[in-house]
Amino acid sequence: MAASSEEVLLVVKKVRQKKQDGTLYLMAERIAWGPEGKDRFTVSHLYADIRCQKISPDGKAKIQLQLVLHTGESTTFHFANENSALRDRDAAKDLLQQLLPKFKKKANKELEEKNRMLQEDPVLFQLYKDLVVSQVISAEEFWANRLSMNSVNHSTSNNKQEVGISAAFLADIRPQTDGCNGLRYNLTSDIIESIFRTYPAVKQKYAENVPHNLTEKEFWTRFFQSHYFHRDRISTGLQDLFSECAKQDEKGLKSMVGQGVKNPLVDLQSLEDKALDEGYGTAATPSTSNSNRTVKENSNSAIIKRFNHHSAMVLAAGLRKHGWFSFHDLGDWYFPVGAIEYEDLQQEDGLKTVSLNLKKSDRYSHGPVPIQTQHYTTSQDIINSVILVQHEMANYKPCLTQVMSSTMASSAIVALSPGGVLMQAGTQQAINQMVPSEVQSELKHLYTAAGELLRHFWSCFPVNTPFLEEKLTGHLEEMLQTAYNKFHAWQTRRMMRKT
Amino acid sequence: MLVYFPYDYIYPEQYSYMQELKRTLDAKGHGVLEMPSGTGKTISLLSLIVAYQRAYPLEVTKLIYCSRTVPEIEKVVEELRKLMEFYAKETGETNKLLALALSSRKNLCVHPEVSSLRFGKEVDGKCHSLTASYIRAQRHSNPSQPICHFFEILHANIVVYSYHYLLDPKIADLVSKELAKKSVVVFDEAHNIDNVCIDSMSVNLTRRTLDRSQANVETLQNTIQRIKEIDAAKLKEEYRRLVEGLKEANVARETDIYLSNPVLPDEILQEAVPGSIRTAEHFVGFMKRLLEYLKSRLRVQHVVQESSPQFLKDIYEKVCIDRKPLRFCAERLRSLLRTLEITDIADFSPITLISHFATLVSTYSKGFTIIIEPFEDKTPTIANPVLHFSCMDPSIAIKPVFERFQSVIITSGTLSPLDIYPRILDFRPVTMSSFTMTLARTCLCPLIVGRGNDQVAISSKFETREDFAVIRNYGNLLLELSGIVPDGIVAFFTSYIYMENIVASWYEQGILENIQRNKLIFIETPDAAETSMALEKYQEACENGRGAILLSVARGKVSEGIDFVHHYGRAVIMFGVPYVYTQSRILKARLEYLRDQFQIRENDFLTFDAMRHAAQCVGRAIRGKTDYGLMIFADKRYARADKRGKLPRWIQEHISDGSLNLTIDETVQLSKHFLRQMAQPFRREDQLGLSLLTLDQLQSEETLQRIAQIAQQV
């Protein structure tokens, strides 16, 4: 067997891959599989490359584990040991479950970054295709240069906007009937995370109970059975695992209420300048006994309470930062400034609103659009140029000492008007008509690719490290040669076609 | 007359409003003015009246500005501050006006120890124990004790406070009675003023109140006993004072210093306190008898309704209590409490309540009714007897105000139909005007949804409100709108119980879950603190772009006091017509009274009342001309002329025939179109000249002509 110095965490025998028996190894940084009797790994994946793992549903004949890679490929392992297949698979799954998240973050970030850059910038994407896919330079080299360059402007986007939680995440767990009087809930890790973030009490329960007292599955089964999940049920027994959670929620809600509100405009308690004492007024006195409320009414008000709490928790899980009102200090009391201002009656614009920080504003306004290779102008560019022109126009000062005489000016206008001397058969028109657009775009791609290579070339100067020297003398020359060859090939192809 | 207006621009309707206001002041009469919310009523009022005060200092000496809620009062003070700053800047002189805002001790008290208490009553009690007259006397000799400034200032040019301080006789007597006759009184947000009047004159007695009063009486007896042993002279002195009677008060009223107290009618002032309750012991005995009688009345098994004379006759027959001593009850108790130097007034509130009841019931033979209910309607098995002594005539409480002050202005965003207020409050206004909102773009979009997509009529009327299809259609409406309206949506239901039921069935049907995909849901609860929290979270959710829905109740606290400016409320949905609960006996009695006395038909009043609340609810979302919002009336009954015609003019004129009786789909289409249009940038230049005027434009002839059309005289 392959003697590696890596720490082997788990070995599972009798695992089939592509109908071949073999052994699965889980090591510190990668997962590997070797066929029986051979001492090399035919399959080996770094954990960082794995996007997720999938398992075959319980009760299926084949007990399988599938690894999906970031590249989209997948590898399926079939656990074939008759006695302990399920146990083996679960052991592997659990170990992977612990290991994957550790690597996930690191890998994801880089990959996402690259992916994002490619998606954002169609020119870069084309370049990537021209240079990397056609193997002029290696992907690492391509990125090495890019990432460092872009790190500056991405430091801003690195403190990325945290994604909030969908308010309806519980509704997204649609129970499906499985035909024999049972319900199946499909839980994804996203939903679990949402539950944990929204209800810290459940997370705590999970941490307390899960590997020791209950399996994960049991835990979630109980969760869905509990009144806690069903908001209209009123807590009944103490044996319920989640009754404590409900109590904790109640407490949380109470403390939230107890804190009161900061904005005096929404504080209903101090809203009224209440002068009527108890006993005055026509409004009926609130009934003193709550016991005469029916069960239905109680459950209704429980629903309302839960909804308020749920919304508050979801909101709290998202980020909370900004406030509409700027509280200015007026001695000891605060009064929201925004409340009394008539912004349109005043000269200056008062309030600053929170702006949505969109990285791809085009996609926001146009919706998802397939990335196209042709050149396009972002709306930001257009806006910028319009602003620029406006600015120019605003600052335009006629220089009256250097104006032309009116006759000259009018003759120039005539010459430039359609049909004038200078407007006949403009050169632009000629090129547009002469060269078909595909040729133009191909040429443009070659040009940008060459430009990129030249950038690589020039970035090597001054040559002060051995690495740069090697890059310069070694493969860069080669690359330029390749590029030239490519161009040459294209040229001859074009010529051939023409003739 | 030169009016300083502290902004660079002015709305045409503000100008028009000021003109009407000036006309009212010139005529020294009362006025009813309706102007949409968010068009700057307050600042128009303030700047005109302050200018008037400066121009004719002898005609108008004081402005009394009454508003409803604490934030409203604070807003007025802020606006006033702004105006004052502007005056100082423009005229260069430091202003001579003294403005004063009054609120309950809870909000204003500067005493560090007292202000930390949260509940109004505790604060009052504590404050009283620190500031009662005899303690103040001590304090003069001991300057180290902190002084509450409340008592030091009462002569201000502008007074801002809550309605109750003028309308509630119990407070008005303390706070407002010395206000000069040549004052202008403004009731802002006055659409509910009749209810405030009625509330301030009505009393509810429960068995608990009586029990606690019993305890009070015992305490009184003990205290009297003790004082008698120590300081009999004090009681004698009181007796002497009572013999002299209320002469002083009478002199004061005749010389026109005081605002008359409706609880203290003129006849009382002519007479001295009757002998039977003049000594402290006799009075205590008298109160005991009264309490016993009331207790026996609460032991009834069936509902009793009777008028004040019937009650008086009965009490005379049963326990031989005459009408006359009853009338002096409140006055006598106050005097006794003062004499006994009881500081903790809060403890004696039950007995005070009883004494007020006694005085009121014996003073007014008309306009009041007594209803004794042995149990609540919903729970006929549980005995919970309540004696409602209910005022049915709002004009009783407000009469002294109209009589005393030369100009009373009643104003609000929703006062339609204008003519009903003078009728129920029994006064003759010199001006009654409704102003529209001049708009450069139609920023409000009232839509009346009458049918669901399945063509089932939607309505909250009693017969169909529990109908499954109606509830589902309401849910669909909310769901569809939650998908297209940005930021905040506020939905109002007709009552809390109805909302609870609908929420429960929406939950069962999964509608709420679907709504949650679009927005967070917050729901008003009967608990004020909980609702405040929900409101704050709601605003937070609108703030961070997530968007939220607030389910709330018309006539609730939210609908009355909370504004949903800009993105806090891009759409308001009114589910149903918010009729008051008509089965209540108190309401029935009041309706009867209105019909007999003022010739207002029951249905007219009920519709008026429902529509003013609906208008209040939908008006919550539009708080200015830069604001915009959908107003969705989800009930087919709104399409009827008698309902629609009772909406304020500024809403009514935007309801076209095309927006009546829509289906949900049509509503969604219209809303989409509206929202898309409104989302375009809106600049000052668009408004200028149309709905926003500069000084130059204001002086042009053409604009003045246009402005003249804004006000609609009624």
Automatic annotation (TrEMBL), chain A:
The keyword Secreted does not apply. It comes from the Eukaryota. Its main location: nucleus. Keywords: DNA damage, DNA repair, Nucleus, Repeat, Transcription, Transcription regulation. The keyword Hydrolase does not apply. Gene3D superfamilies: 6.10.140.1200, Pleckstrin-homology domain (PH domain)/Phosphotyrosine-binding domain (PTB). Residues 99-154, 179-231 form the BSD domain. Component of the general transcription and DNA repair factor IIH (TFIIH) core complex, which is involved in general and transcription-coupled nucleotide excision repair (NER) of damaged DNA and, when complexed to CAK, in RNA transcription by RNA polymerase II. In NER, TFIIH acts by opening DNA around the lesion to allow the excision of the damaged oligonucleotide and its replacement by a new DNA fragment. In transcription, TFIIH has an essential role in transcription initiation. Component of the 7-subunit TFIIH core complex composed of XPB/ERCC3, XPD/ERCC2, GTF2H1, GTF2H2, GTF2H3, GTF2H4 and GTF2H5, which is active in NER. The core complex associates with the 3-subunit CDK-activating kinase (CAK) module composed of CCNH/cyclin H, CDK7 and MNAT1 to form the 10-subunit holoenzyme (holo-TFIIH) active in transcription. Interacts with PUF60. This is General transcription factor IIH subunit 1. It comes from Scleropages formosus. The lineage of its organism: Eukaryota, Metazoa, Chordata, Craniata, Vertebrata.
From TrEMBL, chain B:
Residues 1-237 form the Helicase ATP-binding domain. It is found in: Nucleus. Its EC number is 5.6.2.3. One of its GO terms (biological process) is transcription by RNA polymerase II. One of its GO terms (cellular component) is nucleus. One of its GO terms (molecular function) is 4 iron, 4 sulfur cluster binding. Its cofactor is [4Fe-4S] cluster. Keywords: 4Fe-4S, ATP-binding, Coiled coil, DNA damage, DNA repair, DNA-binding, Helicase, Hydrolase, Iron, Iron-sulfur, Isomerase, Metal-binding, Nucleotide-binding, Nucleus. SUPFAM superfamilies: P-loop containing nucleoside triphosphate hydrolases (SSF52540). Gene3D superfamilies: 1.10.275.40, P-loop containing nucleotide triphosphate hydrolases. The keyword Transcription regulation does not apply. SMART domains: DEXDc2, HELICc2. It catalyses: ATP + H2O = ADP + phosphate + H(+). PANTHER family: DNA REPAIR DEAD HELICASE RAD3/XP-D SUBFAMILY MEMBER (PTHR11472), GENERAL TRANSCRIPTION AND DNA REPAIR FACTOR IIH HELICASE SUBUNIT XPD (PTHR11472:SF1). Belongs to the helicase family. RAD3/XPD subfamily. This is General transcription and DNA repair factor IIH helicase subunit XPD. The lineage of its organism: Eukaryota, Metazoa, Chordata, Craniata, Vertebrata.
